[in-house]
Amino acid sequence: MKVKNDWHKRFADADCTLHRRQCLQWLGLSCMVPLYARAGGALRVDLLLLEGASINFVLPLVRLIGEAAGIEWQIKYVPFARMLQTVKGGQALALGVSKSPEREQSLAFSDSVTSGYVWLVTRRNNVFAYRAPDDLRGHAMCTGLGMTLGAEFERLRAEGLRVERFSGRLSQGLAMLSADRCDVLVVTSHLEAERLERALQKHENADVVVMRTPLTNKALNFSVCQGHALAMLLPRINSAIDQQRNAIKMLVSQAA
């Protein structure tokens, strides 16, 4: 449904600010009209996924939740920087923006859909012992743009840990690792170390080893601009996550 009034452009283009909350107070659910419309009984909602995400895992996952929530996802694959900017602008939901104290000031998050591991990957000819973050001292690390790894990691960065950033495409990170741009590549995955290592070996020039101790665990959540009309979908999404919990566990266990 196309709305001719120009308030919706201001509503969608700005960051998560006070006038958006005022719009919700003044207009209630009518604020939702330009953001999604009904399609065959389901709500049509824009959803951003990270460019390079595992399609064989993520697409069945969001379909499970969409079916239970009565939502027809309009999926777009984007780089992380664009994902974060678009979500903060209230133009879509996203799956793949991790929580941090800074982000929780402007974004609202769903319940955890599932949890994954943050693994360290290194070249087979450059394996070193890793048991705790302090073992990364003296090594260079490649991580995707926008990845947050917690207080210990930030402490190491402040103390001189060299970090190289890439767009988020796994192939780019593996190429940087192969070219000796870094000693370890940070990879987030729902797979256990052995299964991830086998999957990575299928990439070109990827003679790599996955460290058996994860750097940390991360929850996978939907995110949306706080105070935006789209945030009204979170209770519906949370209910769908809870309803599909067993199916999600089965999907994770079967993922290649």
Automatic annotation (TrEMBL):
This protein's superkingdom?
Bacteria
Fetch the Gene3D superfamilies from UniProt.
Periplasmic binding protein-like II
InterPro entries, per this entry? Answer: Solute-binding_3/MltF_N
Residue span(s) of domain Solute-binding protein family 3/N-terminal: 61-188
Pfam families per the UniProt record, alphabetical: SBP_bac_3 (PF00497)
Name of this chain's protein: Transporter substrate-binding domain-containing protein
Q: What is the organism field in this record?
A: Roseateles albus
